Structures are given as structure tokens and as C-alpha cells.
From TrEMBL:
Record's protein name: Microsomal glutathione S-transferase
Lineage of source species: Eukaryota, Sar, Stramenopiles, Ochrophyta, Bacillariophyta
Major localization listed first in the record, in broad terms: membrane
GO molecular function: glutathione peroxidase activity; glutathione transferase activity
Annotated localization: Membrane
Membrane topology: Multi-pass membrane protein
Organism annotation: Seminavis robusta
Length: 151
């Protein structure tokens, strides 16, 4: 069976929020890592600071880890939001903004050495990332359910 669909009028918002905005989010978050490299004297090719080698290894690693976490979820987020946006474009566009904003807040919290490492990533609003992520996931599941013939 062939399933035909059209792209909704608001899909351009999905492309901007879930395809373009993450690029700018990455550039912003990368800037934080580069600044931390200079501040904490962690030179390339080290991806992370090495305890015992770098004086402020843990401080740098918190900044780097916040950025790395973004990459760990970005691919899945992009796929589910672009698919879910075919049925729920405004929801997925909003989820893209929330995911990017929440990722920046996650990194800011995780980087704050005055906070306990176990909870720091959520103390400055990092949970917003997951609201966007799960909204996109729900939209993607809804899209799958609307095109799948179950019997």
C-alpha cells in the first residue's frame, strides 16, 4: 500500500527549530567549551581533562560533559522531531526550541561547580530539554500510529 501525505504549511517552523536552531545551539555550547579550555588549561588532543595531569580537570570536564550530553541526544531528537512534525508541526517546532534551550541550561547547571554534580544539570532548568524531547517523541509515535495499518 502506498501512503500519500502532504507537508503541512507550518513545517517550515519544524525545519528552523529542529534542523537549524540546533546548529546555532551547538556553536554557542562549543564556545563555552573553548572558553573552558583556555580557563582550565586543557589543550588538544585531550577531549577531557585528566585528573592528576590537569589541575582543574573536574571543572573543565563538567563543561565538556554538558556539551557531550547534547550530542548524545541530538541525532535521535532530530529524527523524531522531523518525523513527528509532519503531523504535529507546531508541537515539534516548540519542542525544538525547548530542547535547545534546555540543553544550554543543562550545560550551565552542570558547569556550575558550586552545585553538587549529581543534581547540577537540572538545577538551572536542564529539565526543559526533556520536555521538548518527549513532546517530539510523542508526536513521532502519533505520526507512526496514524500511518500504520494495524490489521
Amino acid at each position: 500500500m502506498v501512503y500519500e501525505m502532504s507537508v503541512p504549511d507550518q513545517y517550515g517552523f519544524v525545519i528552523l527549530a529542529c534542523g537549524v536552531l540546533p546548529l546555532f545551539t551547538n556553536v554557542y555550547m562549543s564556545g563555552s567549551v573553548m572558553k573552558a579550555r583556555d580557563s582550565f588549561d586543557v589543550k588538544y588532543p585531550n577531549l577531557y581533562g585528566v585528573p592528576g595531569v590537569h589541575k582543574y580537570a573536574d571543572d573543565f570536564n563538567r563543561v565538556q560533559r554538558g556539551h557531550q550530553n547534547y550530542f548524545e541526544h541530538l541525532t535521535h531528537f532530530t529524527v523524531i522531531s522531523l518525523i513527528g512534525g509532519l503531523k504535529h508541526p507546531l508541537t515539534c517546532a516548540a519542542s525544538g526550541v525547548l530542547f535547545c534551550l534546555g540543553s544550554v541550561l543543562y550545560q550551565k547547571g552542570y558547569s556550575d561547580t558550586s552545585l553538587k554534580v549529581e543534581t547540577a544539570r537540572y538545577e538551572k532548568g536542564g529539565v526543559v530539554k526533556w520536555i521538548g524531547y518527549f513532546a517530539a517523541l510523542g508526536s513521532c509515535v502519533s505520526m507512526a500510529g496514524s500511518i500504520q495499518q494495524w490489521w
